[in-house]
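Quarterly update from the structural biology core.
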Amino acid sequence: MPPTWIDTHCHLDAPEFAPDVNAVRTQARAAGVQHLVIPAVQVAHADAVRQLAHRHGDSYALGIHPLYTPQAADDDVEHLAQLLEQHRNDPHLVAIGEIGLDFFVPGLDAERQTRFYRQQLQLARRFDLPVILHVRRSADALLKGLRELPVQGGIAHAFNGSLQQAQAFIALGFKLGFGGALTYERALQLRRLATELPIEALVLETDAPDMPPHWIYRTAAERAAGQPQGRNTPAELPRIAQVLAGLRGLPLEALAAQTRANARTALPRLNRWME
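Predicted structure, tokenized:
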């Protein structure tokens, strides 16, 4: 049988998938993507991700993304707590996420981001759930929060920090998410990390429709010349995995088995859905 995969980060509720979301999920399953984790990015998306997870036998996470903190209401964390209480026994709910800090996008209020981040870490402690972290030029600040408000672990999504930062997340019980960015030959530091880190620390993700692999991405010049930007979907995960397997010199089946096991360790409620 061909290997099967867990996409640990897929925004299946994104507007880009609205016209054909069921077909997108069917195509991914045909490609061997056994399970998706669908993280919310704001409280208003909670019902959408929950319904998608239930419809397709997948999992979801609830949280407020740092890029959505400007439009979030000050009481949205309390609304999130109410949702977590309401659905705490839902086996499809596997984490708090996507939460974190983003110090790359200009104009965001770092203090407001940090307040939402820390409040959601407190929810993870209260509901005994792992977290799915957005990490963009913010690894040290995220680690500081985790040391002050320890949680049971989770996934540092789209990790692209230093080896020392990677090791710090691993020491706190986190797995590191790798996806389409890994497929670019110029991503030397990221490829070095993906090769040198313990295989037990890695999970796979697409971040679809974002973070396209190189075979989908079109430059601004190419788009201006009439080449359409391809759409990243969870069906791309096996091909992304092939790149990682090649970098590490691993059989594809071994990588699939290990990354599935890693995802289940990071998000223990996934064990209810895996063989």
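The chain has a mean pLDDT of 96.
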